[in-house]
Amino acid sequence: MTASGHPTSATGPLPADTTEDVRARRPAMAVLPIGSFEQHGAFLPLTTDTVIACTIAREVAAGRPVQVLPPLTVSCSHEHADWPGTVSISARTLHAVVTDIADSLHRSGIDTLILINGHGGNYVLRNVVQESAGRGVRMALFPGSADWDAARTRAGVETPSHTDMHAGEVETSILLYAHPELVKEGYESADCVADDRKQLLTLGMSAYTESGVIGRPSLASARKGRELLDGLTEAFGEYAALFGDRAAADA
Prior knowledge:
Number of strands: 6
Order of helices and strands: EEHEHEHEHEHHHHH
Mean pLDDT: 91
Strand order of the largest sheet: 4-3-5-6
CATH architecture: 3-Layer(aba) Sandwich
CATH topology: Rossmann fold
Largest sheet: 4 strands, parallel
Structural class: alpha/beta
Low-confidence stretches: 1-8, 246-251
Distance between the termini: 31 Å
Number of helices: 9
Number of domains: 1
CATH superfamily: Creatininase
Radius of gyration: 18 Å
């Protein structure tokens, strides 16, 4: 159990609302954490992206009339296929699942869906949001690159974003703060820089790293993780205001 009494799993806190809780709160917005099930080196779990997406969703939803949905835990991780444990679905399937969820929410009276994406390889989510115009459900993808850039600056992240691609300073910092029990020993000596990776999508991650890490996890800290989450929570206010969030309007 978490400190708030919510049940937990390998992917983090699960929503504990009853149908009457949702009825009383009358949410106009839902957030959908989308992660992955892929290798993150020898020191972070396969569920890293899902844990991070759930953590961000929990932070941004606090104090707002928002319905937090259970996460999508398997997505598009094909570039990691050379490592044991990685599981993927097609971009077509991910597109269909997210669109179906949006349509279901619309039928229940929720017309805004924010996709909280924890995996950079889920490129198709941009198309899902792009195509949502005119379907009756307003959608957005969060965090965007500008949101991450601002949060990285706030936290004092030292590794450039291109270098800090996978299981690096940012991801390790967030888990060190939010779920330190999931971080195993070894991140302090697992740095791998592979800035020249033009053929990543064609060749996969294994062409550029033996460990599965691309970044500098040795620079990670719980303090940076806390500041990263605070920065993203602040950035989400713009999205909430854009969609007429009542809590943002009252602030």
